[in-house]
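**Sequence, C-alpha cells**
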Amino acid sequence: MNKEIVLKNKIKEIRSSKNISQESLAKLVATTRQTIIAIEKGQFNPSAKLALLICIALDCKFEEIFWLE
C-alpha cells in the first residue's frame, strides 16, 4: 500500500464566503498568513490541533472543510 494520502480542503472558499482574510484567519488560529496560504494550496497539511482551530474559527465541522483523496 504505497498510495500517498492527500488531505484536501475548502478553507479558501469557506473563508471567502465569510469575508475573512487570510491574515485574520491566521491571527485567529495563532499562525502565519504564509501557513494559511500553504494549507489552502495543499502544500502543507496542518496538525490536528491547527485543523481543529481552523474549524472553530470558520464555525464549520471538520468534514465540511477537510477530506482525504
Observations:
- Residues 48-58 form the longest helix (11 residues).
- Residues 7-64 form a domain with the 434 Repressor (Amino-terminal Domain) fold (CATH 1.10.260.40).
- Residues 24 and 54 are 11 Å apart (CA to CA).
- The two ends are 15 Å apart (CA to CA).
